[in-house]
Amino acid sequence: MSKITYRDAGVDLETYQESMARLPALMKRTHCPRVLPWKNGFAGLFTLDFSGGLFSRNYKDPVLVSCTDGVGTKLKVAQLTGQHDTVGIDLVGMCVNDALCCGAEPLFFLDYVAMAEDNPQLLEDIVSGISRGCMESDMALVGGETAIMPDLYQSGDYDLAGFCVGIVERSRMLDGSALAPGDVVIGIESSGIHSNGFSLVRKIVFEHAGLTVDDEAEGCDGTVGDILLRPTQLYVRALRDVLNHYKVKSVVHGIAHITGGGLHENLARIFNPRVDAEIVRDSWPIPPVFEWLQRLGDVDDDEMFRVFNMGIGMAVVVSEYYAESVQGQLASHGLASWQIGRIVEGSGECRWV
């Protein structure tokens, strides 16, 4: 009887080494001088020299900000299409967009990729998206982990987790305390569904309607696969310019990343207990993808707005005097925005008007 090997258990170490060899170049292209070389690979190093920061040149009382998230069942759509080079952008976006809500500058990122079997090309495709997302967020990809678990995942399955660390000056943290009646809520466009609500999306599209990823998405100018896999919008550069241009506490009073729970739930998370937000529902155009999903699944309005971003990926609360100026800066980055509501006296709620 032959001796049992790791390969017999479903893990091929030679193929694993091939996978690992494809990643250093994707990491290296995201590095800045703050990333220190560390040859043993057990950790990533990032120097606390903040003299060259993009958000603030000189930190006096810095606070580290950490965020983690995944991509969820959007990965099932990637598996159906065989396209895996964009979900890494989603992974980065779900983390760095959260960090922005504190007013933070993203510094570095790590990923965790869990796979059913060694697949060098699949891993390279996934990490290429993560690398691209980091580059577009001016953030270093300093390391990660790849786990091969054949007994936990079915062949072809994988899962992703991301970890972002950023920094913000304590005096410039967006903690909700500056929100005041009269402030304007600016909604910034999303790129589509982003990475939330895909369990409902897949039930509507594939189970209820019986569509495939190659079918045309009616009214959406693309196939089902193209529309559903459109990656999460990254807001780092646009909001960095807004935050750098103004004294944050006097102009930008709050930022909310609109993810699961929709506009109401996520906007309310940044309120202090003395204010409410009144949102005008028809103050921005609903993207065709959400209208298509609603028709396809006969979904109630309230459920759509509770699950999806409905076209608003980030909400920024600003002093009324500067609202149009902030919108101009966002437009210079190619982002549409709308004044979708106002802050009023209240008790920390968000409501339609």
TrEMBL record:
It comes from the Bacteria. Pfam families: AIRS, AIRS_C. Gene3D superfamilies: PurM-like C-terminal domain, PurM-like, N-terminal domain. Its main location: cytoplasm. Its EC number is 6.3.3.1. It is found in: Cytoplasm. It catalyses: 2-formamido-N(1)-(5-O-phospho-beta-D-ribosyl)acetamidine + ATP = 5-amino-1-(5-phospho-beta-D-ribosyl)imidazole + ADP + phosphate + H(+). GO terms for molecular function: ATP binding; phosphoribosylamine-glycine ligase activity; phosphoribosylformylglycinamidine cyclo-ligase activity. Residues 63-168 form the PurM-like N-terminal domain. It is an enzyme of class 6 (ligase). The gene is purM. It comes from Bythopirellula goksoeyrii. Residues 181-348 form the PurM-like C-terminal domain. This is Phosphoribosylformylglycinamidine cyclo-ligase. Pathway: Purine metabolism; IMP biosynthesis via de novo pathway; 5-amino-1-(5-phospho-D-ribosyl)imidazole from N(2)-formyl-N(1)-(5-phospho-D-ribosyl)glycinamide: step 2/2.
